[in-house]
Amino acid sequence: MAIPKTKTVYLCSNCGADSPKWVGKCPACGEWNTYVEERLAKEPAKHVIQGFAGGGKAHPVLLRDITSEEESRIDLHDAELNRVLGGGLVKGSLVLIGGEPGIGKSTLVLQTILGLKNLKTLYVSGEESGRQLKLRAERLAHEDTDCFILCETLLEQIFVHAQHVQPDLIIIDSIQTIYSEAVESSPGSVSQVRECSAAILKYAKESGVPVLLIGHINKEGSIAGPKVLEHIVDTVLQFEGDRHYMYRILRSIKNRFGSTAELGIYEMRQDGLREVSNPSELLLTQNHEGLSGVAVAAAMEGIRPFLIETQALTGSAVYGTPQRSATGFDLRRMNMLLAVLEKRAGFKLAQKDVFLNIAGGLKVNDPAIDLAVISAVLSSNLDIGIGQGTCLAGEVGLSGEIRPVNRIEQRILEAEKLGFSHILIPCNNLKGFDTAKCTIHILQVKKVEEAFRHLFG
Length: 457
Ligand code: TYD
Ligand code: MG
Description:
This protein is of the alpha/beta class. It has helices at residues 46-50, 79-84, 105-114, 130-139, 155-165, 190-207, 228-232, 279-283, 331-345, 370-382, 408-417, 448-456; strands at 6-12, 18-19, 35-41, 73-74, 89-90, 94-99, 120-125, 146-150, 169-173, 211-216, 235-240, 247-255, 263-269, 272-275, 294-301, 304-316, 324-327, 352-358, 390-392, 395-396, 402-403, 422-426, 441-445. The strands form five sheets. Strands 8-7-9-10-6-11-12-13-14 form a nine-stranded mixed β-sheet, sandwiched between helices. The chain has a seven-stranded mixed β-sheet with strand order 17-18-16-15-19-22-23. It has a three-stranded antiparallel β-sheet with strand order 2-1-3, with no helix packed on it.
């Protein structure tokens, strides 16, 4: 038998473009140092595509003849996951869940399918053995469900088993361990990931069985493998959080069947993940009466309001350059806020070390927490605590003005719901919101000085 001819190509690990020789900068996407060497079979991916023949049967239809009934969705019995997916898992869709190693992707997926009573699921594991999965399942409280475990990494075999089992849902853990015989390079390489996911997409669309792919992310934080992977799938979810804290956030980055503003919050426990339906209560458990350096921000993540503690510590700088450190907040933004403080409140920037921490290990991107951050720093500097019942929302501009933020009503209502008595918000932000019904005192502030007068007298 003739040995199949192979050739070496160089593929961009960002966009998947190929080139016969190595280049430093990808001409297609402009990224540097993304080219990797791969061996390709002369006839790429033929078997994969033939594996479940049936292609080429589509024919043009008039748009008006296509029925627009709701996509049929599978209820995953997990309110957070359902919401992030846009109301459940759409039949025939391909969903990618990405996240750092050990963050809990396998746990989330296994726990979800173990809660699906009337569905037959097939869990394809390329990373863990059946026994390991059994041990994990024993940790998670679950009912007796029809869940098949398949420890296989060859794509063609997976399709054979899927034909046989006829599952209602397939999980592939993880896409980087799956390989196809039709592609010469090793599992996890750009061409394997690209060809395998394209074949899986075809399978999902033709059979109507939804497939959940688990994907690793690389050190830059994007999903390992070519960017085309994210283009191929219908939905990309990112599971994130600090491994040393218990909170996990499930974020939707792309969703063809729902909004990307949705977000799910979980708590990692000994017995699996627990849905957190009211995040503020968890993030605000500590009693900080009389402590300086703590301010509560009314923040938003996606379209969910929650209240979060920002903590700051300032001290005299003993070295030449003062130390600055921020956890969960952008350091450059903190430096900007410190410069505003220097100008507006006589804070001696060059002589102070500043440490900032957002409670719970969360990363908050909402600019509305600026006001809380700047107040926490000043509170620590003056050593005067901010009243327990006060929370803040507002973006701080370069000249110390407090700028309006989005969805102020939701922030106010969330603060009221949690029993806060005062909230500081930007001036002219209320636009038509009827505050008559609110019992919380709303203080509108224009400048940081004004806010500081309210907080510290
Ligand atoms: P895992 O799902 O294996 O992560 P991934 O698939 O993203 O790599 O999660 C592993 C971590 O979760 C591990 O450090 C242990 C922890 N864990 C719990 O805290 N409670 C549990 O019930 C389970 C199953 C795992
Ligand atoms: Mg895993």
